[in-house]
Design a protein that fits this description.
The complex is a heterodimer of chains A (448) and B (396).
Chain A lengths: L7 H16 L19 E8 L6 H18 L25 E8 L4 H15 L3 E4 L3 H14 L2 E4 L16 E3 L4 H16 L4 E7 L2 H17 L2 E8 L7 H8 L5 E5 L3 H12 L6 E2 L2 E2 L1 E6 L2 H7 L7 E4 L8 H14 L5 H20 L4 H8 L3 E2 L7 E3 L6 E2 L2 E6 L10 E7 L1 H4 L22
Helix pairs in contact in A: 2-11, 3-4, 5-6, 8-9, 11-12
Chain B lengths: L5 H15 L1 H4 L17 H24 L6 H18 L4 H23 L4 H22 L1 H4 L5 E2 L21 E2 L2 E2 L3 E6 L2 E6 H22 L1 H18 L5 H25 L2 E2 L6 H14 L6 H15 L5 H7 L5 H12 L6 H15 L3 H24 L4
Antiparallel strand pairs in B: 1-6, 2-3, 4-5
Helix pairs in contact in B: 1-8, 3-8, 3-9, 3-10, 3-11, 3-12, 4-5, 4-6, 4-10, 5-6, 5-10, 8-9, 8-10, 11-12
The chains are: A alpha/beta (448), B mainly alpha (396).
Chain lengths: 448, 396
């Protein structure tokens, strides 16, 4: 081993430096401010944190388009979109509280670490007062808890897991999108009338929390109808090839296949199930059926003709005929030349809801904005009257049950609305066992 | 001093000075200027520089010295993080037990994985480590959900036992700290138009990283380091001399695994939430990239590479089209759109493309990484001054 030379002077020097190093941090104190990133200039910054690369990039980029449109409308550019149809008339197109809205964007890569790094940079470097985004429940939960600690409002966009407003709910986090439980509650009656009450269901489930909560929710709702759950097989995320999982379905005696998959996985598993000829089979004297509980336009486009006649649920669809939807679809279409996806709608609405809450509260202070959002009832933003429940910060509204169109007129016309499930049917108690039970709590709101 | 030669001591002090002055060095532009976009001196990113620098230093002990290319180091990073968060949940919010446990547990994992993987060398070793890391990731994502909380990530809860800490008084989550000194507290120095942020967490990471750097310096200069280099230059010959090289490679593997575990523990200490993605193969690949970009087998290279890649990831990915438009608004309209369109391919969601191009340039033009680039510049400057010296003082 090499020789260690400790000279007296060296030891003294090292000791002094170490001592100074240890004493140094005691002078650090958090700088005093009423709340994190209080905007002082003539503008206020929002942070939009979406996946721009990776498996959910399509959804993320569509969200980003909607965010940009929302900021334009808030600043009085363009035709104002939903500002004109929203039931709360506080926003006049002159920014928020007289401050011009600016925004920064980040790439979450659908990884919670990267998403948090990106959100931290927005909060610490760019000084945003609100972060929105999502596209994966893991990411949404991770960023939501970061915003809680930093004292920033998080307006979750695309996240469907029960956990976001269930066991991982946070006082500074708010979700407009629906969740897995609502999907199950909405789709069950439609399935009952379409396929009867004596079915045997086989689940293929994405092997992570979102897949599990959705499978649990759908199984509970279908079993309440009298369906039997034959088997639940967990599949790895991003498997690509599902044929080895689909082959056993044929001999299982099941007559319904439920695909708890999302994104590219759903496109692959559905296409392969159709290729195996499952839907042409007769089992137990009944036509074999496939169900995809959570739909999105982007997935429907990816699966092509395979989705024809397949049932699923959505939070919102551009084909709705209410004035809010029409205004939004019109301004989105004029700017980007395509109808918005459900993810885009959620992103747009959440931005407007935040701006409205800030205006009503008269401040950007997170706790007061939280108070303004809690129990807030509004309408005119598509899909009818909506309430932000105070207990878990989840929005309650009608849910759409969709079906793949048999003869689509164009590339965006892939799904048709089968039923608008009334809100009363998808409601649940805030301490429902699937949502963390009585244990789950929002905690205290944090101003930073 | 400290058992180092004079040259190494000076080197160490330069590294210490650079690390301590990072808040100044990374914020060269005034806060309100247009160039503030390129500032990187905010706590979260500085912490990552130090942490990933530390991980790359450790990775370099294995890859740089023995030549064994591990594609599974992210697994140790993840194990360290999970261990640290569990210590926060069960024991105390103090970061010391957390990072110690993170290092030890990662070391144990490295021992098991290394014992099996090191039976092969070259590409087979790389594939084995990759397989182990991917396996850990898949397990953390699904089967081990009770331990790792799966996709949602392991996080602190209000009802965690934390047996050494006083019970919580408020309903907000506790913050990791060092004997009451909170990791997230910062102090901002306003100097005219500039803002410099000094963050406790960063300085804690910096001190740990400097200690890690010092240890790696000692290993590089030790007989053990020499043995590792011998393995890299010709392992067969070493074996034929009657020397069993496997204990040395295993030791190097465990040491570098412990560095990764320590880095993971620090990541969790700065931000107590761990997602399974931290163990994904892309994260392992990132460390390899860092080391290669910076310079394999050099002391400073991996740290530079880590800084380079984290900077690109966090700064380039945030430049979007509206920012580009504001930069190029002085151009005529049609030209502006064209220029913005071209630049937009390389920033924002296209930052991977920029990284890929830079990686190619470095690997092709500078096989020794950024360090070689620096050396070439230094040599060029020295030759210039030598030339001028030669002309002023002729030989005779």
């Amino acid at each position: 081993m090499s020789k260690m030379n400790f000279s007296r002077r060296g030891v003294l020097k090292t000791g002094a430096v170490t001592g100074a190093g240890l004493a140094l941090p005691t002078i650090f104190t958090s700088s005093a401010s009423a709340y994190t990133n209080e905007p002082t200039g003539s503008s206020v910054k929002f942070g939009f944190n979406v996946p721009q690369t990776g498996p959910y990039a399509e959804e993320g980029l569509d969200e980003l388009r909607a965010f940009e449109l929302a900021v334009q409308h808030l600043n009085g550019e363009g035709d104002g979109g939903m500002l004109n149809t929203m039931s709360s008339k506080t926003l006049g197109g002159n920014g928020v509280l007289g401050k011009k809205v600016e925004f920064v964007t980040g790439d979450t890569q659908t990884k919670s670490d990267v998403a948090r790094a990106s959100a931290q940079s927005m909060i610490q470097k760019d000084g945003v007062v609100m972060v929105s985004g999502g596209s994966s429940s893991g990411v949404a939960v991770a960023v939501q808890s970061l915003c809680q600690e930093a004292g920033i409002i998080f307006m979750a966009a695309l996240t469907h897991s029960n956990d976001t407003t269930g066991k991982d709910r946070k006082a500074n986090g708010f979700r407009y999108f629906f969740n897995a439980y609502m999907s199950g509650a909405a789709i069950a009656p439609v399935l009952s009338s379409a396929y009867g009450n004596e079915r045997r269901a086989y689940h293929l489930t994405a092997d992570y929390t979102w897949g599990w909560t959705q499978q649990e929710s759908i199984a509970a709702s279908t079993e309440a109808l009298g369906w039997e759950t034959v088997s639940n097989v967990l599949t790895p995320v991003g498997a690509g090839d599902f044929s080895s999982y689909i082959a056993p379905v044929i001999n299982s005696g099941a007559d319904v296949l439920i695909l708890n998959h999302y994104g590219g996985d759903m496109v692959n598993s559905l296409s392969q199930a159709v290729q195996f000829g499952l839907r042409d089979k007769m089992v137990n004297g009944k036509q074999f059926e496939i169900i995809v509980p959570l739909y999105s336009e982007l997935m429907a486009a990816g699966a092509g003709s395979n989705i024809q006649g397949v049932y699923g649920t959505m939070n919102w669809n551009w084909q709705l005929q209410d004035p809010g939807t029409q205004a939004f679809v019109k301004s989105f279409g004029e700017k980007y030349g395509r109808p918005p996806s459900g993810a885009a709608h959620t992103a747009y609405v959440q931005t407007l809801l935040y701006a409205d809450a800030a205006t009503r509260a008269g401040t950007f202070e997170p706790c007061q904005i939280g108070a303004a959002l809690e129990g807030f009832e509004f309408d005119g933003m598509g899909i009818g009257p909506t309430t932000y429940r105070a207990e878990d910060h989840q929005c309650f509204k009608d849910v759409l049950v969709m079906k793949g169109k048999d003869s689509p007129a164009n590339e965006y016309d892939t799904l048709e609305i089968v039923e608008v499930t009334p809100r009363a049917q998808v409601e649940y108690a805030a301490d429902h066992p699937m949502f963390g039970g009585a244990e789950a709590s929002l905690g205290e709101c944090n101003n930073g | 001093m400290l058992g180092l030669s004079q040259k190494d001591t000076r080197f160490l002090f330069i590294v210490i000075a650079l690390t301590l002055l990072t808040p100044f060095l990374l914020n060269p532009f005034p806060t309100d200027s247009a160039l503030a976009q390129f500032n990187a001196g905010y706590p979260a990113l500085m912490q990552r520089f130090a942490i990933y620098g530390l991980m790359a230093i450790g990775f370099n002990i294995l890859f740089g010295l023995t030549g064994y290319l591990s594609f599974g180091h992210a697994a140790f990073l993840g194990v360290g993080s999970y261990a640290a968060v569990w210590m926060f949940k069960l024991l105390s919010m103090n970061v010391l037990p957390a990072i110690i446990m993170a290092t030890l547990l990662a070391g144990l994992f490295a021992l098991v994985i290394g014992f099996i993987s090191l039976r092969r060398s070259g590409i087979y070793f790389s594939i084995l480590t990759l397989a182990f890391a991917e396996m850990s990731y898949r397990l953390a994502y699904s089967v081990f959900t009770p331990v790792t909380n799966g996709e949602s990530g392991l996080q602190l809860g209000l009802k965690d036992p934390r047996i050494l800490d006083a019970p919580l008084t408020s309903a907000s989550l506790p913050v990791p700290g060092l004997f009451g000194l909170k990791m997230n507290s910062s102090w901002t120095l306003d100097l005219g138009p500039w803002d410099f942020t000094f963050n406790v967490g960063y300085y804690f990471c910096a001190v740990v990283a400097i200690l890690g750097f010092y240890l790696s310096l000692r290993i590089f200069r030790s007989p053990f380091g020499l043995m590792l280099r011998a393995i890299k230059s010709n392992q067969n010959r070493l074996n034929y001399t009657g020397l069993n090289s496997r204990p040395y490679t295993l030791a190097a593997f465990v040491i570098s695994g412990m560095y990764a575990g320590l880095a993971g523990g620090l990541l969790a200490a700065m931000d107590p939430l761990v997602g399974a993605e931290r163990m994904q193969w892309t994260a392992s690949g990132e460390v390899v990239l860092m080391t290669i970009v910076g310079g394999v087998g050099t002391l400073m290279g991996p740290v530079l590479g880590a800084g380079f890649i984290k900077y690109a990831e966090n700064i380039f990915s945030k430049i979007n089209e509206s920012i580009l438009h504001s930069w190029f608004s002085w151009l005529p309209d049609g030209l502006e759109d064209a220029v913005v369109w071209i630049f937009a391919r390389f920033v924002g969601e296209g930052w991977h493309l920029t990284l890929g191009l830079m990686f190619m340039v470095i690997v092709i033009a500078l096989p020794g990484g950024l360090v070689e680039g620096g050396q070439r510049i230094a040599r060029f400057l020295r030759r210039k001054s030598d030339d001028s010296a030669a002309t002023t003082t002729p030989a005779e």
